[in-house]
Amino acid sequence: MIILVINTGSSSIKYELFDMKDRKILARGLAERIGEESGILTYEIVPAGGKPTKKREKGLIADHQEGLKRIVDLLVDPEHGAVADKSEIAAVGHRVVHGGEAFKATTIIDGNVIAAIKKNIPLAPLHNPANLTGIEVAGSVFPDATQVAVFDTAFHQTIPGHAFLYAIPYEMYERYKVRRYGFHGTSHAYIAETAAEYLGRPTGELNLITIHLGNGASMAAIGNGNCIDTTMGMTPLAGLVMGTRSGDVDPSIPFFLADHLKMSFRDIDDLLNKKSGLKGICGANDMREVIERKEAGDKRAEIAIDIYTYRIKKFIGAYFAALGSLDALIFTAGIGENSPYIRELSCRGLDKLGIEIDPERNNKAGGGIREINSAEMEVKVMVIPTNEELKIAQETKKVIEKGRGIT
Questions:
Q1: 341 burial class (0-12, 13-18, 19+ CB within 10 angstroms)?
Q2: Which of 170, 172, 190, 393 would bridge with 18, disulfide CB 3.0–4.6 Å?
Q3: Are 392 and 404 in contact (CB under 8 A)?
Q4: What is the pLDDT of residue 228?
Q5: Which residues of the chain register pLDDT less than 70?
């Protein structure tokens, strides 16, 4: 089964094409700056045993419809295409950020699913509209393919009420579904399953803390294979300090800003989501740049890193307490996989919990799954590269086969 996975943003389409017979990537790429004259379309085909072919086009990509059509043209290109015809693509798996309480699992898309995703737009106004655009465009470009929605929030639906409810009038939950939902679910699920496979133990026997550190960042406490808590909340703004997002703040701060600076709530939302986090503290949201500035003596950059890693450390302690015991602590995503310095600071001083990083193992270059804990410590500290696109493809294949009665 050949499956196309797309992750549609407001001005981008990230895509990967998989042959699920052997979980092989056939092609991948990104259409970005959609709607701008400076649009960019990248494409990489990954032939079996051969050298990858890469292409990069610049120019206006008028809209998502045109962007996906140009992606398809590359996928079926006679010389460098990954498939002979788009009809070979059996399904399109869509990343959908917010499923609310309506979706606890991956779902084949129909009119009712689309209506439910639209209903959840108030919970994810920056993401769900773009995800819906991807679904609508893919439906017209691939009329014969099965369209499948894989929700960021689904993995977190096992969180118990005492962890997902906020201490506000209960009516707010009953009528408006105001609660903690969590995000990055496909990443946390993939990491948990990969860790279990690596450790040779059933997922249901493991207690894990997974730490997804990219421009967006979140953590999950996974007890006996089920998510019991996560740092993001009703929206992706809560929890850890991120590239441009504040993470947890005093809930009264928006009212203070409105009263004293006469800021509108729209402006405050923009401030907390796009102008805060690392960027708000030191002016840069790329952790590589922040670390370079810190090493050059920039005090703001040093403060930003201290706040960032302190928040991670606090949640490690909190989740250790919630779980009661811990088998592995796992770093993933761009910063988590590639920054030994951030990993070391986040775990510094946690040896009493059985968590300690070995400097040599931590600083050793290399990809793939690796253990970076001190050998004598009980808790495994690991780096596992995430693969959200593969997880989406796996979930898409699973739901289609289940619908056909294949087990």
A1: middle
A2: 393
A3: no
A4: 98
A5: 47-50, 403-407
User: Any catalytic annotation for residue 73?
Assistant: no
| 290/304 Cα distance (integer angstroms) | 8
Indicate whether 205 and 137 sit together in one domain: no
Q: How far apart are alpha carbons 341 and 43 in whole angstroms?
A: 32
Residue 380 β-bridge partners: 328
Q: Are residues 122 and 223 in the same domain?
A: no
Residues 207 and 335 in one domain: yes
CA separation for the pair 375, 188 (Å, rounded): 25
pLDDT tens profile 117-136: 888 888 777 778 888 888 88
Q: Which among 63, 73, 152, 306 is annotated as catalytic? A: 152
Q: How many angstroms separate the CA atoms of 266 and 262, rounded?
A: 12
Q: Is residue 184 part of a domain?
A: no
Domain that holds residue 146: 2-151
Distance, in Å, from the CA atom of 23 to the CA atom of 244, rounded to the nearest integer, reads: 34
> Distances in Å between the alpha carbon of 351 and those of 69, 140, 261, 325, 357?
53, 55, 44, 14, 9
- Supply the pLDDT for residue 283: 95
Our CA angle for 383, 277, 305, nearest 5°, is 55
